[in-house]
Specification:
The protein has about 60 residues and is mostly helical. It has 3 helices and no strands. The termini are far apart.
Length: about 60
């Protein structure tokens, strides 16, 4: 859980920006998205395999 308290002289915009930054770095949203839908281990492996192949093809395009 992320708790942000307003500091002296801090505007609401800065407070919201700091809150968003902390939420992003803590990984709360990503964990919620991951838990929203159950993915079987076999499907996770398929996604990882595809991501690895995709990175390789992108690297080949960039280099040559």
């Amino acid at each position: 859980m992320v708790i942000v308290t307003k500091q002296k002289g801090e505007s609401e915009d800065k407070l919201i920006a700091r809150f968003r930054r902390l939420v992003t770095f803590s990984g709360v949203l990503q964990e919620a998205r991951d838990r929203a839908r159950f993915i079987p281990p076999s499907e996770k492996r398929k996604e990882q395999k595809y991501a690895k192949q995709h990175k390789i093809t992108l690297e080949k395009k960039r280099n040559g």
